[in-house]
Amino acid sequence: MKAVLYICHGSRSKEGQKEAIAFVERLSSSVFIPIQHICFLELCEPDIVTGVERCVRDGATTILAIPLLLLAANHAKHDIPYELEKAKKMFPSVTITYGKPFGVQHDIISALSAMIQHADAIMLVGRGSSDTEAQADFQQIAYLLQNETNIPVYPCYLAAASPSFSDVVTSLSKTANHKRVAVVPYILFFGQLLDYIHKTLQAQQASDVSFTLYPPVRTYDVLDHLVEQQVKEWG
């Protein structure tokens, strides 16, 4: 029997955990596989091995483990595969197939483009990673979004890479080139990041530049279709 295991990053924030669970519930409603479970890489329960155990307990003989991550960085390349290998040793008769993060998707970029209104600049805000391939993918997304919207895009990061979100906010608040900046978080869940983003933008309220914060990527229906497509390709 088939199962889909959705792997989320995890958050210390209870609100972030609730967001992840609600997101998976939404995704699972369009996936017609008899067994579906959620698990987390870190900071939350159940962990990945427990998620596999729950699938097997429910009768799964083959599992598609989908990492619900926007880009393929260290978590997707190393941490999650390591946990799945531990699960495979525990259940050698169960076939576990590792899926893929969303990656650079024109459908996501088009959804972002359609959402942005009345802006003369865009801040594309990534969580951040030291992984050079993930950084390159993020830069490509910024480039494609700029081409699609014909609006200047300023990519930045909340951690682990530069330029930083706060530095770009400060820079744009002092320039005379832009008056209406769309702040687009290229992250799935806000969690504790939401407070930081809000505080940073509020500190610029006296500026002549207007910053408008948009919702995280998880709010777009295009992700449902991409997960459904991945399951169909597996099946």
From TrEMBL:
Transmembrane segments: none
SUPFAM superfamilies in UniProt: Chelatase (SSF53800)
GO molecular function: lyase activity; metal ion binding
Alphabetically ordered keywords of this record: Lyase, Metal-binding
Keyword Cell membrane: no
Pfam families on file: CbiX (PF01903)
PANTHER family reported for this sequence: SIROHYDROCHLORIN FERROCHELATASE, CHLOROPLASTIC
Identification of the protein by name: Sirohydrochlorin ferrochelatase
Species this chain originates from: Anoxybacillus kestanbolensis
